[in-house]
Amino acid sequence: MKKENLWLLINTGIMLVIGILLIIVANTVIPKEPKDRLFNQVVNLENQKTIEGVPAGNSYATIDYKADAVTRSGEVLGTVYNVKIKNGYKLSSDDANGMIELLIGIDQEDLVYVEIVILNQSNWTVKGIQKYIVEYYDGVLLEQIEKFPSYDAADLEAGATAVDSTGAIKNLIIRTLKVHFNIQDDPYTDYFGEGYSLEDDSTFIPADKVVYKQNVKDSAGNPTGTIYELKGTGEYLGYDGISSGSITMYVLFDENEEIIAILMPDSLYGHTAGFKARNDAYLSEFIGLTISEIQAVIDDNADLETGATGSKALIDSLLSALSEVN
Fold first, then answer.
1. How many CB atoms lie within 10 A of CB 87?
2. 107 with 157, same domain?
3. What is the pTM of this model?
């Protein structure tokens, strides 16, 4: 073999070895998948544990599972949660439903990172959703996330069109973090303070859609408000056509008999989840009212479009029933 050919063969072999090494490095060191981009390292998701799983149906927001993010050297970088949202904002008419799948990473310092796995939403919302996640959810704390807007208010064109999707994303991220940190929510504390107590009102007679009334006392035992539970069932336009579902609300009054909050828990909202944020905004119109003033506001908003006609009609019927309670 000529000397020139020998060197050519050697150089080719060296280049081949270098190429193989580069491929190995690219596959084992450079973060390429969503799970790797969370902590900017290639990781394996180990010790997977189901949290809520994936429910049946065409509308849900669920925490599917959690796992440890483990490097090739065995170091645990943090915990990763897989979360999914199924709704009607589909990318193509050929799709049965829209789907959002995210990975939420929480590192050892409790900083939160979010990466998109699947983003099948209406094409005019995709840009806004991507921008919202990239700009807001990159190494932040739960306390910061709770103050984030439900969409990118700085970019109304991209953000506002995606508000239902980004609002659902924010709510699911917060719910996931509260599961992770074992935070037990008591929404009444924000309105009645620590140490409040509840007692059923024995004089109250349940009525149609008004299930019960509770009296609230503060930590010193002084009357400080009342709570009514409202519940009803009605039709709504779901992603598969007309469906029927129930909605439960809690109307909180202060000691002056004025509404201080109307709580409509996600877990008790049996209508299309994608439009719930709009109905929550509608309920803010009733803050500060007394029972006798409720119906007038309902009548004034009779033509209000929330994007969920059936759900709003049911909410109005619940509040109307409350307005008739003596």
1. 24
2. yes
3. 0.64
